[in-house]
């Protein structure tokens, strides 16, 4: 029997996805959810995807997978908008939050929801190799050179630029250091189409560096358009003067009432 034939497929559902990942990984659902974007914030992002002007299937760029919850949710949302949409994901597949082989779980999740044909995975760091400290002292892989040690492709964004790729939107939820994030955003100006959207996760009190980057984003290249709970949204401007503006605030940093805070 072909093993895949026994793989139970169903429509995407956030609770089913966390249960599937919990069963498949032996991690607790609390750990899975704590390392992932909450469902309400993914719903907020999906609402913005529906509003994107386009005359063709959507192309998305997803940076930072962990076990694939946000990736599966948003790829499914894109497919509902147009079933030929494609999400390209970038993640080095290094052990994270006690999950040793996260990419196996991501693949299982995408397969469970029949999203394989709408997904193009890149196993690599967005920029240079980084953030592999939590790999140290973990058990060894079956090979000496593996993602366990941070061995992975690097400079994925630069490669995508060299290949001339363009995206309708990008989500950044990978390396959370401010300077790294700032350099990723600079490269994303080349990759996101004019008027396309950039979503930043963790724009909240737990990540001061991310908040600072978001609040300083109105540089002419990107303009802040919304911020709800922990997700910040910016729009890529048609052209950039390269000049920073006065830094005046265009939106509330946090909405306690759960309402869209359009600037
Ligand atoms: C917070 S988790 C992502 C959670 C995921 N977005 C979700 O909500 O389901 C961060 C992920 O980013 C990955 N990561 C770290 N540095 C990265 C980089 N430079 N480029 C791409 N991914 C990176 C980590 O290995 C981890 O899988």
Would you summarize the structure shown here?
This protein has 263 residues and is α/β, with parallel strands linked by helices. 32% of the residues lie in helices and 17% in strands. The protein has a seven-stranded mixed sheet with strand order 3-2-1-4-5-7-6, sandwiched between helices.
What does this structure look like?
This protein is α/β, with parallel strands linked by helices and 263 residues long. It has one domain (3-236): Vaccinia Virus protein VP39 (Rossmann fold, 3-Layer(aba) Sandwich), CATH 3.40.50.150. The protein has 8 helices and 7 strands. The protein has a 7-stranded mixed sheet, sandwiched between helices. Helix 3 (39-50) packs parallel to helix 4. The chain is globular, with a radius of gyration of 18 Å. The protein binds S-adenosylmethionine. Residues 35-37, 63-66, 69-70, 90-92, 94, 96, 102, 125-127, 130-131, 173-175 line the site of S-adenosylmethionine. S-adenosylmethionine (SAM) is lined by residues 35-37, 63-66, 69-70, 90-92, 94, 96, 102, 125-127, 130-131, 173-175.
Form type: globular
Beta content: 15-25%
CATH superfamily: Vaccinia Virus protein VP39
The main β sheet shows up as: 7 strands, mixed
Tell me the domain tally. Answer: 1
In round numbers, the mean pLDDT is 87
Q: Helix/strand-derived class?
A: alpha/beta
List the helices and strands and how they pair.
Blueprint: H1 14-25, H2 29-34, H3 39-50, E1 59-63, H4 69-81, E2 86-91, H5 102-112, E3 119-123, H6 156-162, E4 167-172, H7 178-191, E5 192-200, H8 208-215, E6 222-228, E7 231-236
Parallel strand pairs: 1-2, 1-4, 2-3, 4-5
Antiparallel strand pairs: 5-7, 6-7
Helix pairs in contact: 3-4, 6-7, 7-8
The protein binds S-adenosylmethionine.
